[in-house]
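step=encode ok
step=design start
structure_in=
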């Protein structure tokens, strides 16, 4: 996916490496910055609903799904110890939605 996007973006710049760097920064932003932003918004009581809505909107981006899934898996043992959840790793509240969205957007990005 990133290779095809970098190739397509390279035509919009004088140097092909600029297109590759643009795609790299886009993936970095969606896979890291957006995930952290959603995590911060979820921790604030007044913005939890907004974070829930934005999370579903951002899931069309594969890098976000990967980052969100890794973060959810990392938080699962702590949530179990605190009695917050008894879910399995593949349940919809942990990584299930991320996996589903990755399968749904696969034909688009393939």
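sequence_out=
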């Amino acid at each position: 996916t990133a290779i095809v996007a970098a190739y397509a973006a390279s035509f919009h710049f004088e140097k092909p490496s600029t297109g590759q760097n643009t795609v790299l920064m886009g993936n970095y932003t969606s896979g890291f910055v957006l995930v952290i932003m959603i995590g911060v918004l979820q921790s604030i009581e007044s913005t939890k609903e907004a974070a829930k809505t934005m999370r579903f909107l951002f899931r069309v981006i594969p890098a976000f799904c990967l980052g969100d899934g890794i973060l959810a898996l990392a938080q699962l043992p702590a949530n179990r110890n605190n009695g917050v959840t008894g879910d399995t790793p593949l349940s919809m509240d942990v990584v299930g939605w991320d996996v589903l969205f990755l399968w749904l957007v696969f034909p688009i990005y393939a």
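step=design ok
step=annotate ok -> The two ends are 6 Å apart (CA to CA).
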